[in-house]
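Late entry, evening session. Most of the bench is empty. Finally got around to the prediction I had been postponing all week. Sequence below, unchanged from the version circulated by S.P.
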Amino acid sequence: MKRTVLIFLAFVFLHSHLFSQSRPAAPAIDARFWSGDSSFPIVGSCRFFEGQLLSPQECTKAIGDVVNFPDLWNTKKENETGLGYATYSLLVLLKENHPKDLALALPQMYSSYRLWANGKIVAENGTVGKSIAESVPQWRPQTIFVDLSGDTLNVVLQIANFHHAKGGIKEPIYLGTASKMQFKRTIASISTLTQGITLFLVGTFFFFIYFTRSKKNVTLYFALLCLTWSVRSMFSNLYLGIAFFPNFDWATMVRIEYITLYLTMIWAILFLSQIFQYEANIFFKYALVFCNLLFTIYTFSSSPRSFTQWLNFYLFASAVLLLYGGFTVVRAWVNERVGSGLLTISIILGLNIFAFDIFVYEGFSAYDPFIFSLGYISIFVLTSWALSMHLGLIKSKPSPTTRLTYDDLYKKE
């Protein structure tokens, strides 16, 4: 009898030991020090269920891997593909007297998702499915409110991607008080909308000048640059255009985002080369224009899943453009082109802002819509002021250091 009892106890011990080994304790993200004064990035370890679309109840019974959140699937899989579907389960620990009116700021995800907070569906973007036929992609960053009475926040996030080269989530989800998160969202939307409207008006103005007063190519290039970036501001980062048109086709939106980037590069190259004719290198000029034309044609003729996988290669071409632009404006500065100081300052500022924009896209820095909008508006306003002086639209004192004229820009010292 004793032997039977001992065998039974040993069996129970081994079974419980093996079961505990296969089902590790759920990792938690500690936010008990968070006071609510600023937004809290939900970053840390979580449970990950690859190839499974699970509900919160199913997550408690399933066995998953422990991974860092957020992450892109391309860095996790051996074949570096972002295709597939998966579920994240995150546990956030809060202090007992945490703020009650909470909200989550949800970033862009690749390419559709469904999110639960404490067992309740609070956000969806597109349609999550297990195949390309079942899923519908959508990008619409949003801020949602959550009702949280306890001291824990359980987040379950389903993501599916069959349409983009990247899969998963690149940026963290932010937790904060509802009032502050909504205020931040409003400021971001207003600043982005202001940027788009301002650049549209500036571009329209110089288009009018080109057709009525000045037939100089530099005017046309700048007008096209303003209008292209105005469109891009509505279909990138915050994707504010999708907020106004929720049923806008996702593939068309992605094409607009990429093509406006390539066209912006073309207009910027031609504008820069026209402003500083004697400093510009004709080989780099046409090589960069040709490169961007190829990317534009390829984006028009292929699927988002295909053309988005070449973005990292394109960023290399962008780096070459930044170096080329920097070298050109430095030469112009050294050669002391009379009246070109304002343009040189705005171009250098533009190169830095655009470089920082690339760093944000790669995940090296956080995106701040207000700073970016203010920076781009300042760049285009400074450039339009200098160009207006160059075209004689703005009168100034007849001094060679304050009056920007066509001869001043293009004469050799």
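Two things to note before I forget:
Residues 181-410 form a domain with the Rhopdopsin 7-helix transmembrane proteins fold (CATH 1.20.1070).
The longest helix spans residues 178-212.
Will write this up properly tomorrow.
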